[in-house]
Specification:
By secondary structure, this protein is of the alpha+beta class. It is built from one helix and three strands, in the order E-E-H-E.
């Protein structure tokens, strides 16, 4: 059974806190430029996860979960 989209949790390893942020990212070696993968983050892990993606040049956007609109998909964020 996968994560419950009605109660999204932080993507940080071992964290079970409610997600507050969507971190949209893209690995240019693997994905087309418009593709957006997502990680979810709680308040505590937003900066850490953003830095991890940012150092690699993958981070494209950080948006409040309540404001997130996935390109081409009206559903909840997925990894």
């Amino acid at each position: 059974m996968g994560p419950d989209p009605d109660f999204p949790l932080c993507s940080a390893k071992g964290c079970r806190a409610d997600a507050v942020w969507v971190l949209a990212w893209n690995n240019p070696k693997l994905h087309t430029p418009e593709r957006r993968k997502t990680w979810l983050a709680c308040e505590e892990h937003r900066e850490h996860l953003s830095a991890f993606l940012g150092v690699r040049g993958f981070l494209k956007d950080v948006v409040k979960l309540e404001d997130w609109e996935s390109p081409g998909d009206a559903g909840a964020p997925a990894g």
